[in-house]
User: Fold these one by one.
Assistant:
Number 1:
Amino acid sequence: MTGRTAPSGGSRPPLSLEEYAERARTRLDPAVWDFIEGGAGEERTLAANGAAFDRVRLSPRVLTGAGECDPSTTILGRRWGAPVAVAPMAYHTLMHPDGETATARAAGAAGLPVVVSTFAGRTFAEIAAAATAPLWLQVYCFRDRDTTRRLIEHAAAAGFEALVLTVDTPRLGRRLRDLRNDFRLPPHIVPANLPADQTDYSSPSEHGRTGLDPALDWSVIAWLRSVGQLPVLVKGVMTAEDARRAIAAGADGIVVSNHGGRQLDGAPATLDVLARIAAAVDGRCPLLLDGGVRRGRDVLGALALGADAVLLGRPVLHGLAVAGQDGAAGVLDLVLDELSEAMALTGTATVAHADASLLTGEDPHRGGAHATLPAAPGNAAAPRNAPATELRKQDLHRSVSDPVLDTMNFLNEITGRFPDVVSFAPGRPYEEFFDKDEILDHIRRYLDHLAAGGASDHAIRTALYQYGPTAGQIRGLIRDSLRADEGIDAAPEAIVVTVGAQEGMLLTLRALFADPADVLLVASPCYVGITGAASLLQVPVHPVEERADGLDVADVEAAVLAERARGRRPRAFYVVPDHSNPSGNTMSRRAREELLELAARHDLLILEDSPYRLVSPGVQLPTLKAMDRARRVIHLGSYSKSVFPSARVGFVVADQPVRDPSGAGTLLADELAKIKSMVTVNTPALSQAAVAGALLACGGRLTERNAVPAKHYGEALRVTLEQLDRHFPEDVRDRLGIGWNRPSGGFFLTVRVPFPADNAALLRSAGDHAVIWTPMAYFYPGPGGERSIRLSFSYLSPAEIEEGIGRFAAFLRAEIERCGATVPTPGRDT
Ligand SMILES: Cc1cc2nc3c(=O)[nH]c(=O)nc-3n(C[C@H](O)[C@H](O)[C@H](O)COP(=O)(O)O)c2cc1C
């Protein structure tokens, strides 16, 4: 509320939502107050919603090192300022003439979305013009499907991003206060987006009875999707069984709601059924809750019990009634301020950290989710009806609820749903280079190599069949190859062979990050493998945003200084210097030198991950490790691109000396191997043998082995750029606000677009244009990337790329048109 004038009706701004409610009550006509405030029947469910939140007890946590808390979250691919949106409520114009436009402005200022009711008092176009955060449309399905269809089409045309189907209203509940008051809407309060025909909307309950379709079933979800091509959430789910059915019917999200106690009186409080529903949903789609949220700490309580976000209902109307847009903004600011307070005092750094550990043992909701599952089939020993042991997600490590660990699920699901798409999503090698017999030749060659080196049959058998040395058995060959290809001079003892570079990241983070105040800096956008590993290990991450032309080392230094100022220790910086995943950018030689100087100045380690160099055309810049004179760089290597990914062989070069208090010394690689012995014991010998055979076949020179693939990927990149240029000549792309970078190699490039490139857009791209890509926002540890796309071209043939970019161009044009910009056709305006 800082800087905002105090809403009139009191000498100071209200300090709680309760005070807002009280001020609203004194300003509103008593019948209008009853209409918004009341519930169905004896209002037992209405009361239960609030009482359930009153019972929540949160555990204060101290000295957690959490620092500034970040309440932002990502729902359906869009960043929200906090896990809060405005619930759909009819006729905001009853509270203030500006109605929903005031609400949309207030919510947008806080970065919060609004779910706009079917019965909004202002038109979708007016609301969209006022909004700066996502808008969703709440849909009541009418008996007349054409009316519903038109409603959705208008919302979609105005840029609404999702549909929220309300399913708890086959008829409206008996709201005794309205019946007693014989409540009628004043003549000027009308639904601005429904046909202005003879329909009498003045009595919501009567219109509800005649207008709403009472016979809906689960097939309505597919119908809605076919009309709007938008994600569909289902609002009004109150049981685990219905949640499972909703997901099976294709719902993209679920809102646990009893309509604010306005429908079935006697239904339980939403918070009381949340944990059980969260267990059934199991993270498969966003889970929201409404009903009774009246303080910031209620938001945190709902997250702790498994919600991804909440909807706030009546309090927003109270704010509007008190002071229009300023009042609604005051309400939302208050909730966000209370949420930040609750996060700080419970040591909850981000919403991903909000889990059941926040609840005290006395919390009555905590043990509430004991759904009975059928006994596992075929387990004869189990008693016939013994319930399977069900685990609650909230009781698992918080990382399993971190969206970063789930990043690719939506993409996989889309690929499954639209099998005929051209996919610019996967960062996979081109499969035509794999020969099914070559793998056997590799293993044979390695065995011959061992024999030629004097190994006995027995020693060879042991090497192939037994547990092997934890640090790996092909370290000598890797050393030779690094010398030949990368100018890296590392003793075999400084190398640990890992299960992919991914294990290398996990081991390295585990060894280096010992103190809660240690922070990992990452170039952002960032490969999700490193942020995922950091999440598993609860390592705090500080993103350093890459600029359009790549990383600026001054930004890394600013991040180091900012973390120091907060009392934390920047320990290491993770970077993909060559043809980065996801952006495609490459650091210049000068930037590499500056980064090494900065690392020395600030006692920072560098984690260098560079898997695309050896499969990229042309001469590569030196690795950071090759330029490293002070052993500041830990080099993470991978053979997934340069040999083949199924081997899952990677390595870490960790030549940093480690000294213990007695003065004895080892290398960091020795310490990583100790950790590895408790993770994967050793990298499978068969895989090492196959990679070793491939290294032997080319005398360690993977650049030579990969000359043909590198040419192919270079060609794929060239064709992708050529096709983009063809569809969007320079003046056209400038006018449209589209742009892309021109990587010199690798598998990826970044396309900047003038519209939100989120899951909803991806769904339209797949459904309408049969092409998919990855929203760049997936790769941002914090906000960012909302208007960029990662295109991966490595997996496709030139003909597929040509076809795919054609479809992609059609998608971009359609999307830009959708946002209201005009789209010039190439040729006509060049
Ligand atoms: C005045 C009023 C109008 C409402 N109109 C709608 C509506 O049009 N569509 C809908 O799905 N829910 C509607 N709801 C229910 C809300 O979306 C939400 O479920 C409920 O208000 C949340 O509870 P809370 O008010 O306790 O926060 C309405 C609620 C109120 C109070």
Number 2:
Amino acid sequence: MSVRVVARVRPLWKSERELDVIVRPGNVATDALKVKDSQSGKVPVKERDTLIRIPNPKNEGEQYTFQFNAVYGGETTQQELFEAEVAPTVKHLFNGFDVTIFAYGVTGTGKTHTMRGGKSLQDRGVIPRLLSAIYRRSRKTEKDSEGTSKVEVLMSYYEIYNDKVYDLFEPPEKRTLAGLPLRDNHGKTVVVGLTERPCPSLKDFESLYDQANTNRSTSATKLNAHSSRSHAILCVKLVITNGEKTRVSIASAIDLAGSEDNRRTENGKERMVESASINKSLFVLAQCVEAISKKQSRIPYRESKMTRILSLGQNNGLTLMILNLAPIRSYHLDTISSLNFANRTKKIEVREVENEPMFKGPPRSARLASTASRQPLRPLTASINVNIPVNDDKKADEKKPTKAFYVYSDKQPVKPHRTSLRRSSPLKQNSPNFKRQSYSKPAKEVDKLSATSLKGVSADKIEEMVEKKVEQLLAARALDDSNQHQAQLEQMNEQMQRRLEVLERRIEGTEDARAEGLSYLLMAKQHHGRKEFSSALRMYKLALPFFPRNQKLAVKIANLEEKLNSKPKSQPEPTVTLPGRGSMLSISRPAKMVKTNSSRDTSDDEYQESDHDFADEEDHYTNSYTGLKRKRAILETATNSSMFDNSLRGNVDDELLIQSPRTAHLLSIINSRDVGQIKLLKGVGAKKAEAIVNCLCEMDMVNESTAEQAQVRSLAELGKLKGVGLKTVQNMRSGVLG
Ligand SMILES: Nc1ncnc2c1ncn2[C@@H]1O[C@H](COP(=O)(O)OP(=O)(O)OP(=O)(O)O)[C@@H](O)[C@H]1O
């Protein structure tokens, strides 16, 4: 099914002026207000707006008009929007369809207001209203069935913050560095390890939802006092049991973070990092939508977690996009870009509708079919829509020259593409049957000609006619050969494409599984470091199925079990409660420090040494900051140690601090954290510059307790930053004027 796109223009804020309004809802009909029906005496009804009008930023006299399924102006209440757009989806949810509703728009345009809304009854947004409609209908369903049907509501809620997935039922200080892993499960992306809470009543839902929202990452920015710094995804699972039959459907409500123009936000470094991540994921989303609308074979949905979840998400039938817009001039360019995005999304809808009949083709595996129909944003390469026979037939017909039909007019009707592909097999071309078929017909035709219509024609004329006919036949054959060659190529392409898909899926599967296993290990280690042994044990156990033959892992689990069994039950595990988001990074520090002390957990080291694969890949996860962290940790441990020799300290400091002017200049650029400046360094693009700044900010989080900004103090340290490397350092340095 298709994406419904509706726009909602928020009202003016007190600080905004009517004079600056440039976005105006409109109607296709010129007489927006219907003339009062004098006979029936009905109140005039305003036709539903479907247009957004906005001036061309380069020429104010010119108006751009965008059309959507519906447009709601600033006067639209939460109730009106819900009743018109969301309430009708509830019955589909109860009929087994998934429903996805997402709000898209620039920061400060009202996405959170639309989805969550305010506390008062009339301010409640789409989500609480949806839930209350669900509970109402659940009670009705149960009542109407006289107790034979039972409806269960379960809820999970997570956010994607800086491209990492966090369970919103977990407080920030309990989060792990890597976040929760994603896994493909029969074409759907699922978040592994997500908590799912039963919500028997609206009250239960409300308290869970409110509690979880306090864990969501929001901050004040110049453009919004409560700006969402993450994409929040609420999944409400509806399980309807009727006797032996159980039907599950999911309503997903997604409040996307808003794109930001950082020239206007005046964001500080932490907000900048978040902003870069938000903008990147929205950029990837736009690219996905563009790629789909341009029918490109590669849709980059894997390039961000948000697009991965959205594209393979829970939209089994109905998808509603609410485009939030600000009415005023200061958002002009952002509004145009949002409108363009929504316009493209709307086009996907059209294409999807057109593609629907294609599913009537030969039966395919139920799994694939269901996946394809669920995924408006699914890439074509992995979709059932690729190589659909109905299409292929058309294509083959289009490509076949008319002459070929003329020459072989007594041939059997053209068979479906698959048949013609089989006929074009190279083996068959070389077979005697193939040749006989090609030549026998022309020979017959010549016989027929000579027997009937050639009486009284001169021998020269006959020869000329025969020559002409032979030429025609040869030309036709050449054409037929090229058709067969083309068909052969297409068949090879199709086969290759399928094999690639299989390989892709296999690789993704293994990588996903390995990444998942490794993230469990990482979480286990972090818990271990915090001496949360039972959580560590649980994580090690979760990792075990991914590395079943790893002896050290088994030993570690056994040791922990023994440790926990011998521990007196009354003693609670120490937990590290650190303020703010950075705490999840800080927590790994004590673990590393422990290793440098004599009291370290030797089994951990054994495990690392004996399993290089793990060690390498864990490095991959932590590389972004461990290089510096390790050096600092050594330095700090040494500084704290009474055995530390002052002269040695001097050497380390010298190594870190003595720099040539060129190096000092380079490091000052890096430490400025100005993406604009860093990206101008030789060999560094915008992406790498962003990664460097990200990395520095992550290091800040590691150092949060000292409130000191992390600095890169040598070229060696610079080379250890994620994605930099010595070659890049050399490049950067050679491009800097000393
Ligand atoms: N339709 C509306 N009616 C009344 N107030 C609104 C409406 N839309 C938005 N607002 C107000 O505008 C402000 C910003 O809205 P909101 O926080 O929902 O924006 P947002 O798009 O979610 O921003 P961000 O992406 O930064 O999180 C809030 O104070 C909100 O109450």
